[in-house]
Specification:
Largest interface: A-B, 117 and 117 residues
Number of helices of chain A: 7
Oligomer: homotetramer
Shape of chain A: globular
Strand order of the largest sheet of chain A: 1-2-3-7-4
Strand content of chain A: 15-25%
Largest sheet of chain A: 5 strands, antiparallel
Chain lengths: 357, 357, 357, 357
Amino acid sequence: MAGNSFGQLFRFTTFGESHGPAIGCVIDGAPPRIPLAEEDIQVWLDQRKPGQSKYVTQRRESDRVRILSGVFEGQTTGTPIGLLIENEDTRSKDYDDIKDLFRPGHADYAYFMKYGIRDYRGGGRSSARETALRVAAGAVARKILGDGVRIRGAVIQIGPHHIDRGRWDWAQRGENPFWCPDADMVATWESYLGEIRKNGSSIGAMVEVVADGVPPGLGEPVYEKLDADIACALMGINAAKAVEIGAGIESVALTGEENADEMRMDGENPTFLSNNAGGILGGISTGQEVVARVAFKPTSSILVPRRTVTKDGKDTGIITKGRHDPCVGIRGVPVAEAMVACVLADHMLRNRAQCGP
Amino acid sequence: MAGNSFGQLFRFTTFGESHGPAIGCVIDGAPPRIPLAEEDIQVWLDQRKPGQSKYVTQRRESDRVRILSGVFEGQTTGTPIGLLIENEDTRSKDYDDIKDLFRPGHADYAYFMKYGIRDYRGGGRSSARETALRVAAGAVARKILGDGVRIRGAVIQIGPHHIDRGRWDWAQRGENPFWCPDADMVATWESYLGEIRKNGSSIGAMVEVVADGVPPGLGEPVYEKLDADIACALMGINAAKAVEIGAGIESVALTGEENADEMRMDGENPTFLSNNAGGILGGISTGQEVVARVAFKPTSSILVPRRTVTKDGKDTGIITKGRHDPCVGIRGVPVAEAMVACVLADHMLRNRAQCGP
Amino acid sequence: MAGNSFGQLFRFTTFGESHGPAIGCVIDGAPPRIPLAEEDIQVWLDQRKPGQSKYVTQRRESDRVRILSGVFEGQTTGTPIGLLIENEDTRSKDYDDIKDLFRPGHADYAYFMKYGIRDYRGGGRSSARETALRVAAGAVARKILGDGVRIRGAVIQIGPHHIDRGRWDWAQRGENPFWCPDADMVATWESYLGEIRKNGSSIGAMVEVVADGVPPGLGEPVYEKLDADIACALMGINAAKAVEIGAGIESVALTGEENADEMRMDGENPTFLSNNAGGILGGISTGQEVVARVAFKPTSSILVPRRTVTKDGKDTGIITKGRHDPCVGIRGVPVAEAMVACVLADHMLRNRAQCGP
Amino acid sequence: MAGNSFGQLFRFTTFGESHGPAIGCVIDGAPPRIPLAEEDIQVWLDQRKPGQSKYVTQRRESDRVRILSGVFEGQTTGTPIGLLIENEDTRSKDYDDIKDLFRPGHADYAYFMKYGIRDYRGGGRSSARETALRVAAGAVARKILGDGVRIRGAVIQIGPHHIDRGRWDWAQRGENPFWCPDADMVATWESYLGEIRKNGSSIGAMVEVVADGVPPGLGEPVYEKLDADIACALMGINAAKAVEIGAGIESVALTGEENADEMRMDGENPTFLSNNAGGILGGISTGQEVVARVAFKPTSSILVPRRTVTKDGKDTGIITKGRHDPCVGIRGVPVAEAMVACVLADHMLRNRAQCGP
């Protein structure tokens, strides 16, 4: 209720600040007897880990996860899975400069207006560090979904540079530091982001997540629709500013006959001839690929001087030092994947509850 | 949990199908001693009512709402407010043709795959008729928010035709059948939509909702962020395919210094020099205008023949007769406003619970 | 959240006051394709209906329930089931005397202190009339549980008069106006309650509910234990003051060896040699009979004069006229049964979600 | 939802097993700017700590709590408070004997039937060790309630030996190892429990919790009544078998005129002349003392041999060695107090949300 839990039946609750002793997560509702080891989670955390290329933050965190409960002799027991990640590289002194002023574009001002107090070190609770726990929860969600459901994300736009969807090759996205599925775009992004970084600036990005193997029937009919829950999940990621499902914003300019995905039998099975719906009709999955996109704004922590005000109500200026992502959208890929995984796992359990196996 | 309730502290639950005897709504959590009469709700319902121009469905529903409980001597009592709207114009025979096949772009197939049964008459539960109840709940939400918070929506794009934001005039939107704030665009839309309608087709639209007077501090920090909840609320409206907050998708192409809204003191008060954030930072309102947009796809009920399949697994074709909206986005305006109002009222109560008055 | 909903996956929300136009209920989460007709609900409502003997209130309500949604061609559709019961016999004038004072033992004072307003007619929202909706929801819960689960309640004590458990015969409880399973006790209660009624007084009662056929595995391990949820469900019934599970209060005086139910194999199946646990261990059902008891206080609406105060802070006296139950515990039987049914149905769905079919 | 969280607005989620590396708790919804240090929590944990007298388990746990998040410069920040307690004295070998059989009266069988797997070491998740976290959450709840609300518990019966309520003296309960408010009863309990312990047996107990200073207006009217939530909270404590509010079970034998608490003005304020209601009418607090009782069964871990069965379906016998409480009700006192504190804090926030400050 106070906003630090996600999901209904597959539900996780996180705690921790960027510069506290540790961050952690409690995952409740995971079915029993699922094989689970720390390594199953670590492999996904390593994808989000900082310091892996020059295009992401240089903070050094090993992000080692420990399972504190809920697993016995290599299997989930059905009781809550407690996870803990120690904070290691917390240079709180970097933040002394900003403790009495509000960084433009950050949560500083909003937190202060709401709570009258804020842990300014590294952004405290509002730090993207919290998203490590989403990735951890997503790893467990994937276990619940099973191997039949595959959830993959990619960066499809950085600044003004879109990939060419015709060159989309999933195999490519692991071959570059951008999760880029279009090999021909990599060089452009390298030089563009290199320039952004050199200028002490930052830039936005668009991430697309595709889930295949999703069974039909997931989602609720009116207020907890699968697409609404995905929208909530993705918009809740730090720096997210827009979410699209299927044809998304382009739907505005489509006619009814262009938009509605026609159907034909393919042997025994109904199939769709297109996927403008993004795999969801009336809030419920159809069995097609679930396709969602999330737009990330540029990180607000930049070296370019900006105007701002102090807690005491004085005009001032700010340069945000520290070790920041020039393009947060890149590390947003594993986070966006994880959130989609969590939504799907939750709705899989919910559907099983109401409609049976 | 089964998806027919919305909100946490200000919470409403709806029931009813398009062609059943009635639809209804239970609003729980409204503070006591708020003056409330049926007319306070009716005035908003009338904005969404079908049959008001040739650009919306010609179904004839008076949409008269009755308050069954929760109001005593003209004031809310703090107990649940039960609302009922009788269905009047239910030509169920119109739907005999479609009871054994799936309309492309509709919820038919997804419902059938989930539940193994569906009330095909008028779309049953998936009908946009349910949104009347959202508007009713939104009317009560506005009462809770008080006169200081104003929530207004407008259509800003139909098909390829965008308004000119420089000509935005709120006073204009009541002067045309499109909720269009740009008087110069009205003629274009009239002729464009007239053509669409004549062709038995339909078209998408983009709606923008702006809430001013929202106090700072509303929203939760991690998973029930104000923007995430607005995204969920808007994406959950029938036919919605994308949601944006503030600069939205354009954030992707902004640099950090372009995007971060700078601050300056304006007398005693901090102010922002721009509003790319859309009034929300770190998931929490800042006191700026809250700005959200929702993209509606074209309605799938069109006279243009489409290919589809039957429940029995046979290829067939379909023309959807009946009385449908050529552009559902238009009647989406009061619904989108209502959903934003409900999210804000909920978070106002939540903030009061945790952070005091 | 605002307290007018019950359950998680099988969830119902009620609205309505004693003397408003109608009371109603929305049941969400019922599985699809369950045969359901109004008569399936009415049969249980008729058990709770007032005016059936001289030992209960003489208010005349036919309590006819209408299904407004969620059922199509005789089957549930998986969407919310809206139920409505019109109020008929609302003699609001009976209550003019009490509008400015607080009836001792009633909710009047508490409501007024909380909300600053109250619908005093017939107790408004606090009236036991609301329990009709619990019975209606319980009827649907029974459908979900299926014929294998049987939930039966009985009155086992009225005032000082306990039944003899050795004479317990379920067949007897339908043969008298008290739900009494001990035929030999009926005459005693008749004369005792007759006296109470003649004196314009009232008396408490103890109700026992037994559910057999409950599968093992229902309930959650720590905070939403099956016994905790039953306690919540039963204590939430109007006039309830205590809840016991299994040996209940007698456990206090038992030694460990007396209390712990021993086990032995019965062919292939483990069985218990006693049932002090009341069918629940560690918050989870074991497959034994689930046994719960709820103590009802005497109704506070009596003809005996009592001292009280007015809203304006003056001492006064009161006699509560109207048509009240001399022993509310009697009509509490179908309500207590219904609440246990709702808890079991909810946990059956929850268990299916997490642990599979 | 999966049952490891408690509360709505003041909400905590626990994780951890008796013999895992640690147990922990996440408290969400605490208001900001409340002074809070580890010592504020530790002082309550020390009351529940094992090994403090010969009448409780001899397990040696220092139960040192660490605050991992949510507190900054000595004050709560409004973000989740993460708490961790390391497990120290985990002699898992003690439990090898019982890994393949079900201890009568324990959760063993129920867990196995539900999950198909169980962490048998020390009872795993079902261990009363988890209640340390409830006490920790209760410590924070008390901070929220403030000094005006005082919550105190006492043991009022062990086995057949009741205290004399006429000798009740709160000052006495800290002077003996039983939380006994009747000094004259202490010697009786000492000799009685000494005998029980010598025999390797155990015995039940009744605990009473009294909260004074509770403001009127806490609680919801129908399903989340204050008394229903207290019943849920207390029945959810390990070994609880019954809960009473106010006159409780004795209400059954009271007449309406005996039961209904009369009112009189005391200067400006209405007062009640008795408190059979236990401070709650219609589910809402009246401002009187809130009085609740919880009956604890004897612990099932005893040295007396009992009959049971194995996982493989064979009859066998069992003696439960290890270090167990001869009367778990004693250490239940701080736990019961804590649960009542959590319910009150939750409803205080909820009431503030709906009805204002």
